[in-house]
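We modelled the chain as a single entity of 237 amino acids. Its sequence is:
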Amino acid sequence: MTPHIEASKGDYAETVLLPGDPDRARWIAETFFERPRCVNRVRGCLGYSGSYSGVPVSVQATGIGRPSIAIYIHELVQSYGAKTLIRTGTCGALDEAVGLRSLYLAETAIMDFDIASGRPPLHPNAALLRLARGAAEKSGVAHQIGPQVSSDVFYHPDPLGRFNAARALGARAVDMETAELFALSARLGFRALSVCTVVDSLATGEATALSERQALFADMAKLALDVAAQATSRGAC
């Protein structure tokens, strides 16, 4: 056990999907996993393990923001031996060309406050991103691949304008966690990928309804799981 996870050693697979929402973690497990079992209930951040296409896989809710996802990443990697972490979260569009309900694959990510300091953007695992690109193209699901910005601030008086610097660097989507995922990947040595569903647009003011969001996540969850299965079968995970 760790301070935030009650699972026993061996309860998590080496590949773990990371949604923020505990309900999404449960939904992914119950919808896609073969023989799902709950391995964590601490603080309501649910974790499940099972298999997908015969490959062991887990899902663990992380809550909202950098501090929360960092806690679960550290514990999953250092205490439970996770080697591949795939964020399956939500993001907002910063460009009108990034449509609602589509998927956004982050090819880089950076915290908004790191842009002014000139710090370089962070990267996902290149092999996982290639697999995700190929799976998205094969399935025909609407998707975009590009730079992403992360921010600790959700509510702001200038929702779009505050990301002008990030947009100038090519960022077309924003979330709160991907940059931390990539930063910890470099520090702790695990493979990382971020696949997000676009649920609102700061560029147009549009937003999806909460009532439809679970159904929206099917493409994202299946893509992430297909990547996990392919990577494992090829010996990349």
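As a brief sanity check on the tokenised model: The chain has a mean pLDDT of 96. The first strand starts at residue 15 and ends at 18.
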